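User: Please predict the structure of the protein below. I'd like the answer in structure-token form so I can feed it into my own downstream comparison script.

Assistant: Understood. Taking the following sequence of 453 residues as input:
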Amino acid sequence: MPTFTRKSTITCPADEVFAWHTRPGAFQRLSPPWRDVEVVRSSGSIAPGSEVELLLRVLGPVRLRWLLRHGELLKNELFTDDQVKGPFKSWQHRHSFIPHSDSLSTMLDEVDYELPLFARPFGSLFTNELQRLFDFRHAVLTSDLRIHSRYRGMPRKRILVAGSSGFVGSALVPFLSAAGHEVFRLVRREPHSPDERFWNPDGADLSPEVFKGIDVVIHLGGEGIASGSWTEARKTQLRSSRINSTTLLALTIASLMEKPQTVIVASGAGFYGDTGVTAPDETIPAGLGFLAELAAEWEQAAQPIADAGVRLVNLRIGAVLNSRGGALKKMLPAFRLGLGGTLGSGKQRMGWIALQDLLGLIEHSIFTESLSGPLNAVAPAVITNREFTKALGRRLRRPTVFPVPAPLLRLIFGELADAALLANSAASARKAIASGYSFLFPEIDEALGFEVA
């Protein structure tokens, strides 16, 4: 029976690494972007006898059910899970946590498995897939714990997230949950679980009870800027999805007798308009154009929160890099086929951030009480679209020789092309750095190496 092993040394005590694995969100954080996995049911525990049933998308519509049961458990040392039913003839996964000091440990994964008879000729391919999977899992684990360790010993928070099903929100909720925070989600339907609370921003329906016991509110709502051309109807939709929900949230929080400690509201680096050859900091006023006007109005809608004495952080988010969503997800198919290239001249400067650093900056904003007002959520390195294109080609080991001419972009996307694809969108990360945030991925090659699996 083959045995696969993967281990990493982590600058974190073994008991904290073990505890991370026991919390809600850990499984989602360890699920790779290239493998569609749905949790059908789970006991939410790693106690002996507890089970998790998964639905794995193998190819197209083909899915396999995989039932795992937890077996041996030694607190802070190890736990195991065994296949009850599933695609393998046998499978046992042993997670071991080996202490070295108060701040250093080893995470060891050992998998004993046996492939079904028909799959054995493809054993080497499966070994490569296991290597890829556990390389991803260990990279995420190490990175998450590195961020969370900055706030070790600080009280955990009760956090309410609006926009939890979006690209950033769906990563943020498990990221914060695995750190030990108690996370609740605002949903626009009838709540199905204790961690969900209802609101209807279109109907101005938000009960003050939703905020009971909440320390931090994070609002990430808003439809995707780059999803379709900017018709007048689309602009109205983009505006209402941001302004209406933020206004309702802000006015409700401002009226509360017991208010949250901190509110973080998303905004956009488009606040500055076309930045030319500069990288503006947060002291620069709003620029020109639809994106700048939208971001300025979005931030103004949140202002009643600050006026009521609650610490408010407006995150001016740049292009978020991760293969699960955003612009990068749309680019990857063409780049993987070797058909990627620059947009227009490629000289336009980009404000970008790795998703992992955006998650880290949000947790940093939660705990850094001196931080308030606008905050550029962008990496320190300012790059051009051409430099980004070449870096993505290097990451994928593909040529990038097929530029998309600016006239074609304007024909396809209209106003969106000049405002978001061809404009300079650089911004300064100085305020984030001055507040004590240390970027995990300040350079584009490092960021793409982590975020493009």
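That's the full token string. The chain has 13 helices and 18 strands.
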